[in-house]
């Protein structure tokens, strides 16, 4: 079974997870920008990883369209985010937004907690985060999620850890 990891990463978290996965499964990991350098049709399973961006998996819809041109490719998705893995409801909501139909939800998907890096973030993303921080600080009655979010986005942090690849690795090994 030939496996390929394709990752989209702005601040390095998804790239780090992609490399852990490729090391563990002994398969190549290719950045989405270098997609043209590989022939997807040679692989049986494509593992696509990207960041969560405003509640969605960044670039997944576009990549799925590119994949549709290659029949019989099995897609496995992993997403990295600032949300802690323990926040099950929030992560569940992200998947429901990402895969709005029951059929789509059958795509194997895995969440890996990562963090935030203001140092590596682009100007546009920095602007969005500052606007969110301002909105939350000015909001009078915040619920617990909003309170947690306000604390979490104050500074950069890294809560990534290799163990979060384990469910994906087990899934692939059972195939
Ligand atoms: C503008 C913006 C929006 C984000 N939205 C979310 C989100 O909705 N949920 C989440 O868990 N993380 C969110 N994040 C955090 C990123 O998903 C997280 O930092 C991710 O691991 C970055 O991956 P990368 O380093 O591979 O680019 C957001 C980050 C930015 C800059």
UniProtKB/TrEMBL annotation:
GO terms for molecular function: electron transfer activity; FMN binding; menaquinone-dependent protoporphyrinogen oxidase activity; oxidoreductase activity, acting on NAD(P)H. GO terms for biological process: heme biosynthetic process. InterPro entries: Flavodoxin/NO_synth, Flavodoxin_CS, Flavodoxin_dom, Flavoprotein-like_sf, Protoporphyrinogen_IX_DH. Residues 3-175 form the Flavodoxin-like domain. PROSITE patterns: FLAVODOXIN, FLAVODOXIN_LIKE. This is Flavodoxin-like domain-containing protein.
């Amino acid at each position: 079974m030939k496996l390929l990891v394709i990752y989209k990463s702005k601040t390095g978290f998804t790239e780090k997870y992609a490399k852990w996965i490729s090391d563990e499964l002994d398969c190549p990991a290719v950045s989405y920008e270098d997609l043209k350098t590989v022939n997807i049709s040679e692989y049986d399973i494509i593992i696509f990883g990207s960041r969560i961006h405003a509640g969605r998996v960044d670039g997944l819809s576009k990549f799925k369209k590119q994949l549709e041109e290659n029949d019989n490719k099995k897609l496995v998705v992993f997403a990295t985010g600032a949300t802690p893995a323990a926040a099950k409801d929030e992560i569940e909501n992200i998947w429901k937004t990402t895969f709005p139909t029951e059929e789509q939800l059958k795509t194997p998907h895995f969440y890996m907690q990562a963090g935030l890096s203001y140092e590596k973030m682009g100007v546009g993303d920095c602007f969005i985060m500052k606007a969110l921080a301002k909105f939350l600080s000015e909001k009078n009655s915040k619920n617990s999620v909003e309170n947690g979010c306000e604390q979490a986005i104050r500074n950069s942090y890294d809560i990534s850890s290799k163990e979060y690849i384990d469910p994906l690795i087990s899934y692939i090994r059972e195939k």
